[in-house]
Amino acid sequence: MDPRRENILEKGLLLLGVELDQSQVKLLLAYLQLLEKWNQHYNLTAIKNPEEMISKHVLDSLSIEPYLEGRRILDVGSGAGLPGIPLAVAHPGCEFVLLDSNAKKTRFLFQASVELGLSNISVVCERVEVYRPSHLFDTIVTRAFTKLVDFVNQAEHLCKSGGCLLAMKGKFPQDELKALPVDFGIVKAHSLSVPEINAQRHLVKLRPRRAGDH
């Protein structure tokens, strides 16, 4: 492991207030190594610098950790495993499903989960609007997936009653919030602070409508 990368990650975790043990830190660094390796042949992420990946991928993903609810979590449009893989490392007792319709990306997700020994991850290659799992989810997360109204329309059916939808955004999504259905459940927007990232980060937390309400 690169001591410099490990130091950057550990400092970032401390600033975020996310407590991980040494084995979890090493898993996150191993994940970054895999991402760097696969990125040379597959376009998984536009960020190529591994140290930049620490802040813009791993720490950014873990910034929403306090907002997760329940034990069964779905990452919609997971792509390179963000935010799902860092969150799965941080929460080994939770069950994570990484969903993406791109076969190339889900091959990476499967390989990463196997190589990292993350038994709490399942990978599904499917479009979210047609995905029908046997059990619904406590929390559904997405990062740079689509507009809020589309995320709600496509993923709401996968959320348990009383569960929540979490959408990671950059700038405060005022126009997207206005476009949500007027009868939608509780909506809250939280400002996030991510170490080494000066740009705005926000998290929108939504409670879905109950069955029969729409």
From TrEMBL:
Gene3D superfamilies: Vaccinia Virus protein VP39 (3.40.50.150). It catalyses: guanosine(527) in 16S rRNA + S-adenosyl-L-methionine = N(7)-methylguanosine(527) in 16S rRNA + S-adenosyl-L-homocysteine. Pfam families: GidB. One of its GO terms (molecular function) is rRNA (guanine-N7-)-methyltransferase activity. Keywords: Cytoplasm, Methyltransferase, rRNA processing, S-adenosyl-L-methionine, Transferase. It is found in: Cytoplasm. This is Ribosomal RNA small subunit methyltransferase G. It comes from Nitrosococcus watsoni (strain C-113). The lineage of its organism: Bacteria, Pseudomonadati, Pseudomonadota, Gammaproteobacteria, Chromatiales. The gene is rsmG.
